[in-house]
Amino acid sequence: EAQVTQNPRYLITVTGKKLTVTCSQNMNHEYMSWYRQDPGLGLRQIYYSMNVEVTDKGDVPEGYKVSRKEKRNFPLILESPSPNQTSLYFCASSSTTGMSNQPQHFGDGTRLSIL
Amino acid sequence: KQEVTQIPAALSVPEGENLVLNCSFTDSAIYNLQWFRQDPGKGLTSLLLIQSSQREQTSGRLNASLDKSSGRSTLYIAASQPGDSATYLCAVSSSNTGKLIFGQGTTLQVKP
Known about the structure:
Helix content of chain A is 0%, strand content 50%.
């Protein structure tokens, strides 16, 4: 089954404790990205990657890092989490071939609470 | 700067009704528009994607239309069912970065 898998689904942690949210897709997609969803602000892009070893900032990259060492994985790293990073996070992927006609597939989300 | 607006924010209808959800965007230079469904505690499920050159797409009881020149899209749901209750999001892709700009969503409740 084609899917985007995020882990963990839920995490409560404390300020300053480094954490990584993993994202893996099994569709051989070149494109992957991360979004955060906040009440009143909607979904906003954090980072994206067009292919292996190619990453770039989205609209709200501050406080986050990403890496793309393999095609299927795109982890989101919070080096020193702060309470304003409490949010619902989504990973997405799509094929870049004929990108205008390719839907983006989203994971089930990771709810992070930073105390 | 592209902005996406969805009206209404919430909608409650009795089962069996046909309904229309609206999405508008400010910049008509888009690659595509995608409609998603979001259930509580779940991720986003892609429902329909309309390319900029298309006028509409259909999947089962769902029909999405696109009028690029006026910056509008509608999602038509026929014969609504309680299982259709969810938040519906529209998103446009208007850059070659693949970034999606989302609306705030319409929360739909279909009452039995």
